[in-house]
Amino acid sequence: MKEKPCMDILEMLEKEEDCSQGDIVSLLRCDDPEVVEKLFTIADTKRKKYVGDGVHLRGLVEFSNFCRKNCFYCGLRKENKKLKRYRMSFEEIYALCERIARLGIRTIVLQSGEDTWYEAKTFAELIHRIKKLGVAVTLSLGEREPWEYALWRDAGADRYLLKQETFDRELFVHLHPDDDYDKRLECQKVLKDLGYQVGSGNMVGLPYQTCEALALDIKKFQEWDFDMIGIGPFIPHPDTPLGEHVMDPEAKCLLTLKVLALTRILTKNTNLPATTALGTLVPGGRERGLRCGANVLMPNFTPSPYRMQYTIYPGKICVQEAWGNCLPCMEKMVTKLGRTVATGFGDRVRNSS
Ligand code: SAH
Ligand code: SF4
Fold first, then answer.
1. CA-proximal residue: ligand 1, atom 25 (nearest)
2. pLDDT at 353
3. What is the pTM of this model?
């Protein structure tokens, strides 16, 4: 079959007609600046139409960098013996959340490696206490048992982030020595059934990742109707098996922005962060993300010295910043773009159609 011209595909997208995986591949491959510019403009228009100008700030707390797994791309992998490991105590985490809530942040994201040191029941008690601070709680703790997800939901957790990383089965297997593709999706189903708002996402620019694989990710994001989708560039970490991988940062940034823009257009009102990884990849990366469909930022509230030890990937921006400085910086970024800092919890309204 003959490929449709990219401008025709963009017209379809503008009119909110659905497009095929093949159409998405054409757009991802296209480097005509006029097409790319138009794609980004459509994404920005749909962002404004479906989620408005408000940018939600989610306060990130990276409370432990211990991990039982060995994902090939990640600096926290168990086999990385060079990493200095830390665990924050329950009291330390709670005291930090109190300070974050006092700053007016409406969502706290608790993230860690897959660290089963924190007993599920005690963790549930922590969630219960944090909820009393009047914030939404997002968990990002990896794959856990259904009863643990249920316990935390009962304790008041609102959302759960568990990225598929790639929907290409073969690539998934190559990246995850400990994980099963279907089991991860099963976790998503369990989380959804428990009433969590669920988040997925991918990494862009992984070794052996094709445009077909990225187009599949986007179609799956649409099909699963996720509430949040984290799209970030893969940044090689020298102390991992994928540390040698090279790709031009600007090319990777552009590809990530295209995936982000297409995801906004096709999922309409999903919450999409302009990721810290994008800001690390190129200067101004997050600002560019916000102009291509993103409506969420994640200020980092992990205290020193832990913050520099949470090295999922190297060179992470803002790790040297004093605690709390991310907030005014992001407020400035948002205002400069003519947008506003959203004041609500930023829950997503599910598409009824
Ligand atoms: N253990 C949890 C949460 C921590 S990892 C989990 O795996 O879900 C959080 C995210 O970091 C992952 O979903 C992955 O997308 C991202 N990540 C890991 N290594 C990365 C790298 N080298 N470059 C960019 N993002 C990376
Ligand atoms: Fe652990 Fe998550 Fe990193 Fe995998 S991506 S090694 S589960 S922290």
1. 234
2. 42
3. 0.98
